[in-house]
């Protein structure tokens, strides 16, 4: 029942995503908003008698400090306790939307670029330096060189139409097959 209700309520909402029939994601805030975050709610087998699993481990949330994530999860857990025994996924998403500013008041974007640069600089020395071997050029015999020189003009270019097919020869052989 709750699954059908969620599908009908959030139909056409770009922020809502159904990962599976028991797992859902909702983006709180607009795309590009530095205070936007993603909540993932997964139902357990005994849901709604037992609380759902709430996660903020999505890649989208990498700029949010772990302290802010823990704070948001703690506030959502309080809402879960109040609604235990009832269908609460929609309630939790709406609660997060209504309290977004309060949840993110201590948010200062964490830039992970320094850690990525550190990882790259650590991995770089381990890679093998590119080999300095020169690729061997294909060796041509004297006869091959002469034949190539005969085909080309004094500039080393092939004459116009050197690879054209003789249409007259083809039309004669083609007409024999038609007979």
From TrEMBL:
InterPro entries: RWD_dom, RWDD4, UBQ-conjugating_enzyme/RWD. Residues 147-158 have a biased composition (Basic and acidic residues). Pfam families: RWD. It comes from the Eukaryota. Residues 1-103 form the RWD domain. Residues 119-159 are annotated as: Disordered. PROSITE patterns: RWD. Transmembrane segments: none annotated. This is RWD domain-containing protein 4 isoform X2. It comes from Carlito syrichta.
């Amino acid at each position: 029942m709750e699954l059908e209700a969620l599908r009908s309520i959030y139909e056409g909402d770009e922020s809502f995503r159904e990962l599976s029939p028991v797992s859902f994601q909702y983006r709180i805030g607009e795309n590009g908003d530095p205070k936007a975050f993603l909540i993932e709610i997964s139902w357990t087998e005994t849901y709604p008698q037992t609380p759902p699993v709430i996660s903020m481990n999505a890649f989208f949330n990498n700029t949010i400090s772990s302290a802010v994530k823990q704070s948001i999860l703690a506030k959502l857990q309080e809402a879960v306790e109040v609604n235990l025994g009832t269908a609460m996924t929609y309630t939790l998403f709406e609660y997060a939307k209504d309290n977004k500013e309060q949840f993110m008041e201590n948010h200062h974007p964490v830039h992970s670029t320094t850690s990525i640069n550190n990882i790259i600089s650590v991995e770089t020395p381990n890679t093998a330096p590119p080999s300095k071997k020169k690729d061997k050029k294909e060796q041509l015999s004297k006869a091959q060189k002469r034949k190539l020189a005969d085909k080309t003009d004094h500039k080393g270019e092939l004459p116009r139409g050197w690879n054209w097919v003789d249409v007259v020869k083809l039309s004669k052989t083609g007409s024999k097959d038609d007979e």
